User: Fold these one by one.
Assistant:
Number 1:
Amino acid sequence: MAEELSPADIIAESAGPKGAPPQPAANGDGADVFSPRLAGSKDMIVTEHVDKWFGDFQALDDVSLRIKEEEIVVILGPSGSGKSTYIRCLNRLEEHDAGRIVIDGIEMNEDVRALAAIRSEVGMVFQQFNLFPHLSVLSNITLGPQKVRHVPKLEAEALAMQLLERVGIPEQADKFPSQLSGGQQQRVAIARALAMQPKIMLFDEPTSALDPEMIKEVLDVMQELAESGMTMIVVTHEMGFAREVADRLVFFDEGALVEQGTPEHFFTNPREERTKLFLSQIL
Amino acid sequence: MSEQPPIPRPDQRPLPPAPGAGQRRIVLPPHRQRARRPRSVRVREWVRKNLFPSTAGTLLTLVAGAIMGAILVGVIVFVFFGANWEVITHNRWLLFAGGFPHEEAWRLWVSIAVVFALIGAAYGTWSSFGRRDHLFVLVVGGFVIFLMAHGGAAIWSTVYFLIAIGCMYLGYAATVWMPRETSTLRTLQQRIVGGLLAISLPIVLVILLVGGEVGPRHIDGFVLNLILAPVGIVGGVLLGIPLALGRASRMRSISLTCTAYIEIVRGAPLLGWLFVALFILDDVIGGDLIIRAMVVMAVFTGAYMAEYIRGALQALPRGQFEAAQAVGLTPTQSTRLIVMPQALRISIPPMVGQAISIWKDTTLVTVILPLRELKGNADSAIAQFEFTPDRIEAYVFVAVIFWIVAFAMSRISQRVERAQGVGER
Ligand SMILES: Nc1ncnc2c1ncn2[C@@H]1O[C@H](COP(=O)(O)OP(=O)(O)OP(=O)(O)O)[C@@H](O)[C@H]1O
Ligand SMILES: [Mg+2]
């Protein structure tokens, strides 16, 4: 046990008497603040009892999670546990079948205008980068602002150059994605998402397709982003990043949210057998 | 940014060693001059390896060489000594433009000059003339000029043709100096040349047909092939795009309609559809026979183009759609800006195959319809009493002309693919 009691430990303790079936953390207001720096923050993402089915396969099973503004959440879990499905529900690349999803106060439903508003607040970075191969790096980044936000071309390009500066590759602006290394491509993808000036960034295994020597350059950008106050949800197997940057770790298994807590809680004192098994395999 | 010293990371597993990013590809300068083997040795080596590798190989080389040599000698003897090219030179206008009025011939020349200039500009913008391209222009141009100048009657046509070739090089010179790096000016150039190419067919039709005494029924001879094929190809692509999207659509009624169109049209040969143009379309839409033939060409080609584009749509990774959605593009925007440009690029090779095929199939209008294109007018030429013995010459000429255009199409498409390759994933 750590010397200091982290909020997660308190929750774990207060969830019930020892031996009681483990409960996911309560969802009451303020009850799931995992980092003191977020004490007064508002809820940025609220998901309540979310279910997702693919045919008769249940990919998400009653997932409830509240994420604070500026919080960095890392999602862990074995393959097929529903991590991707969960974060893809947050910008409706997948439609959830039951439960509520509220992004920055906007309820996710059939309303296309609500969806447009949500998509413009949520940026996403994919494992396979998914850059547009027929457009230059600069056009990849300016496309969204120009076509969705109707930013004038020159302004969009100035913003894009700023972002390329920020991710460290301004000299690549005129190249095509195929001419860049994987790490550079992923940094362009991050810049492309940031160009829409989102409040939330979703990362789905952003470094899993990269050669080892390129992982760090992408993680550095993400760390800088985290320090700048972005709300981030990151699916990753990079335990170094999780330990150092995350406010909270969330463990998924078989579509359900099994355990959550501070990095310290996870690495020193995981509660669930499944979590322990998973961590023992990955560490 | 990768230059910064790494932030000390206490109490963790060390990350895998990450040498400075971007320094992965290490290229050393050559460290000593390596001697090349002398040319004569290399040539001897090549000949031995490729022509005389073994007894059987040597035998094959000799047999193949003998056959090719015999063919070559036969062709040369036929072309320069045996053949009577009078049938071509005497009928050059009939073969080229048939019933197109002589006094309106300037329309043809202006159209040719415009098209040549655009081809030159396109090469200057996206590619460049290589030695082989110049050679091709020289040989084909010389061939055409020889045919026109023969007998001395068509000196002016020769001059006009030379001017048209000059226009091609002008178009090339006007565009090729632009540096290829992305710049506002370069983008503007690409927009202008691309836009002109896109509307080149309507421009040519306007030059040919608007005002004066000419109408669609005057389009005749080789000019008819040259008009029918592009109309079929461009019309086919324009029809193919919505058909492909429609067939892939989630709305059953739309996808069923498009599927039915594609399958029915592909279910009968072009020959059959030209019969439809002749007999049925007359009652339904009426109109000039040439217009009906154009409609049939486009409708027919459209079904094939649709299938090639649909194949390309399916080949696009799902991540492209998702990335477009995540950036906030509407479905229409992502189709127009992300999906279609990539799908069209992927489907260039099969579409060019279809284009070459429809180019050759333009001769079918002679078979079915009372329309006279190049092959039909060649038939007329040899129907003349004094030229009946020159059947072979006439058909060889027609074949060569078709081959020249088909070959040029295939070369240009290779250039297009290569020029587009830059943005390939
Ligand atoms: N479009 C789909 N159709 C059917 N089943 C799907 C679909 N997408 C995901 N699934 C299934 O849902 C489950 C969860 O998938 P998901 O991609 O969310 O897992 P994950 O935790 O991200 O795994 P990984 O670490 O391998 O990426 C898997 O069993 C997967 O097979
Ligand atoms: Mg996944």
Number 2:
Amino acid sequence: METKIGGKKMKKLSMIVISLLLVFALIAACAPADTPAPAPGTDTAPPAQNETPDDPTPPPAVDGPATEITIWFMGGSATDDSDVIAAANARLQELGLNITINPIWSGGWSMQEEAQIALDTGDTSVDIFWTGSWGLLYAPNATRGNFVRLDDPNNDLLAQYGQDMLAAVPEFLWDAFAVNGPQGFGIYGIPGYKDFAQLYTWDVNNTRLSGLGIDFDDLFDMDGINYDVIFDPLFEEAMQRAKDEYGPTFFPLAMEGGGWARMISNGDTDLTGADLMHFTFDPNNPAEPTDFLPGLAIENELTLRVYDRLHHFWNQGFIDPRAAIPGEAASVFIDQREAGEYLFATTVYAYGHTTQASASRGIDARFPRMSNPIVSTVSATGSGFAVSVYSRNQAAAVQFMNAWYTDQTLADILVEGVEGVHHTRNADGTLTRLPGGRDRYAPWRFGMGNVFTFSPLDTEGPDYLEGFLAYNAAGIPVTFLGFTFDPANVLTEMSALSAVWDEFGQSLEVGAVEPRAGTEAFAAALRANGFDRFEAELHRQLEEFFAAR
Amino acid sequence: MSSTVINNKKKRKFRSNQVSRPAEVAINVLVGAFALLCILPFIFIIIISFTSADSLRIYGYSFFPAELSTDSFAAAFTMGNVLWRSYGVSFLVTVVGTLLSMFVSLLYAYGLYRRDYPLRNFFAIFIFITMIFGGGLVPTVMVIRNLLGLGDTLWALIIPSLILPFHVIILRTFLSSAVPETLIESARLDGAGEFRTLLSIVVPIVKPGLATVALLTAIGYWNDWWLAMLFIRDRTLFPLQYLLMEFQQNVDFVRRNLQMIGDANIDFAALPSEGLRMALAVLIVLPIACAYPFFQRYIVTGLTVGAVKG
């Protein structure tokens, strides 16, 4: 009897304890994420999110142990970076900075997942994150309060520790990184200074084209605008000859859904990431939009003409049927071009790509432009770095970035490794990569800060940077430069529309379905899934942006 | 006499728990087809891993590739240290994790099995609750990385999966079914302490149950990439599964974002080929597939114990 009563009491006690534990856990989980737990062995609390600390992390002392800055890079592969990091740390000491660096190398997915989790869980061990408009997204993380405002009037880290870097990067790139974050409207990231314009080009396998007896210049004008080449009868004739020459398994037109038609129809830029809208512009001057408020891309007349043409090519057997399968299309597109098994394709060009593509594919690859290069928020924020709000070394992080963005020796070490081990320096200032050097250490060159600090490679030539500057100067800012779409109010609609795109978009974009009927069904499905609300939200935000400006 | 035999045969024929010959054939065909469906994807992966890159590019996947090649395996083996180090990490985590997990799970299950343990009910409810409510991603990461400081250590791959409630419950059920309480009492009367009773009396009896749970645990550790994604940034500590997952997902990321990234920003030659990824998948599956025969004898016993009451 006593045991029974004791057992009941124990049960009650257990229940109470468990209930208390659950309530405690619930309350703890609901607490704001602004007080990350300090790492063991440290007594300095990290700066709270949404607050401006009275005494922000001080710069590292000149004497004593060096401050270690952990920086998370995008892309590249580094299986053994020990000698590079040792050389970089030595250079930092030479520059009078008592700082060492500890890099983390990641591919795109890892950056998207792991780095985002690190930020969302208040990871104090990472000081600087790569960020951009296509991975570890800059704008959402900045507005969410994951990044430190660098030009905060109460603690202007840029003014204190980043003056040289501020001067080295063009002002409009800093402007493109200005967003409305928890610490007010300001700069929450450091722009990567590389090619900042978005240039759509044809990708022509001239080795095959000339082999078919067709002169490149009869079809394309390297100095002009070539978007309408798709309607040229010679374009079709070239593909027919290729088909006859190389057989049924050769598909001359390499297709990728989600942008092909947009590139040719001057219907860029997709401001929403939903692959649905067009913002039609004059191909000669993308700063001149033909409509200030974007509409549905498949209702744009030039886009429909492109779809008609593609459908015709599909029926002729010029396009690989696997291009219509969403899961396979991108692989087919990539593999075709890398093997040189194509005649015409499209691409998003970056400076220097002609040499790189021709060498890797073993062909004469040429890239005549569709329209003039566009500078948009998406292209300007394509790559950059941000200091984590959870970093305990914010001042040191900005000091390091300032040195890295302005010191050629440090920049060369971090991008091309150690002289004598990974490369040699030539009399004309260029670097020659040593055999095997890139096997162990190969960062993504354009994701390494300020490209204009690097010494050019011998393959690029000593005038590389001058050419690069001229290339950038040709970029034309679009009307909405600085605008970033905030999807918060239409997330449900965007999710539904994305599913509709998967169902209809791919096959339409590669010409697999009859365009008129296909677009009607596509448009009806989009409107039934909230497209109008999505469009209205985009228009509202754009109108606000234009009004504010 | 003969009529009695015929009657007996008829009786046996229509016993309620016996299936007719056609039904037996049908069931075998069905189960065989199901087994084939299970094994086909793996066979397909093996075929793809032996398909040449050109054949894959031109014709896509096929059970009958136009051209066979061992290039993918050659490429996998030229990965050198990266591959073997990851193999080592996976083996170490699987072996150490499984042993530790078995030890603590058995201790927990044994406590729940012993009726004379006063906190038995409390701990039974305690572990049951963790089956229903999870801590969630953010608290888990914060505890393991920030509080315990286990980031970039192999312990981060072992400790979070050390005690799985499902495994504890299987073991407890096994103990209840296979070990009579009188046996424990006898051991005690013979002067055996608690650990002696557990290790010398109980463990030999529950070997089949332990083997079953050990296999499930080992598979869990071997296949895990999630914990590595959360806690490991040092590439020298990547387990094999995470290496493959990273390859696959990074390629998918490039495909999805090709127009945003731009060709020039991608080193296509550095991206692992389809064949290489399939070859890695084969290399990953082989060791754990080889472990099955060693456990099979116990697993059948482990799964059927308690199914028939004598």
